[in-house]
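Limitations

Structures in this collection are predictions, not experimental determinations, and the ligand pose is part of the prediction. Treat each record accordingly. The example that follows, with iron/sulfur cluster as the small molecule, is included so readers can see exactly what is and is not provided: the inputs are given verbatim, and the output is the predicted complex.
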Amino acid sequence: MKTMHVVQISGGKDSQACAKLVRERNPDAHIVGIFCDTQYEHQWTYAHVERVAELYNLELVTLNAGSVESEVTKWGRFPGGGARHCTEYLKIKPAKDWLIAKAIKTGGKIINYIGVRADESPERTKRYGGYDASLIMPHEFMPSKYPKYMGDKLGIRYCTPIVEWSSGDVFTYLDGEHNPLYDNGFSRVGCFPCLAGGDKEKGRAFNFDSTGRKHYEIAKKLEAITVASGNKPLFNTKIGAKIECGLDNSGAGCAFCSI
Ligand code: SF4
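Predicted complex:
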């Protein structure tokens, strides 16, 4: 029975480097790229995900388990702090369910590659710093999210081949083939913007282009729901209020840059 290689791709640089590396190490293998669509991504990211699949010859599987909009509406709050309901229900759970269903159907061994890097944040250093690129049982990778039977009974393994890489290593390895959002002032690529992110990052995205504007309109409608539920508004700082002034008044450029 052949091993099935699965790479989780997001349109960001780390998952792309992971996909590139898995392809280099397995030149003839059938590799599946799983993309969990939050329906709140930039159009460049959607295009980039397709490009990543083409570049590394992946079978692209897009999982749609709802949207950021539906998750915030359902929970009455934006993601933030320890509450990442959108990550949980739009990314972690659908990918897990897909892997389990595939393992049951094929009865074969699955290696699921994830492009996490330990130096990405103190939280990730704490969580992933002890791993190397060898195979990990799913429940060892994320004990609260993955049941033991995924590894024990279904033979699924996780692998984090770039866990020791720096951000610079990743850009060098991609050799200019990264998502163009990085060249436009965005240090992270995920939702556009991540609603759990800081006010500056959110403001930059909302002011960036028509996608940012559209996503701002969605976020403002969601804010009415979060505030009515007694939870936080879209922006939390004075900087946020200034960003909002820019959004309301200008329609062009990032208000934050003029602060
Ligand atoms: S990137 Fe942010 S908004 Fe998007 S799913 Fe993750 S936590 Fe939620």
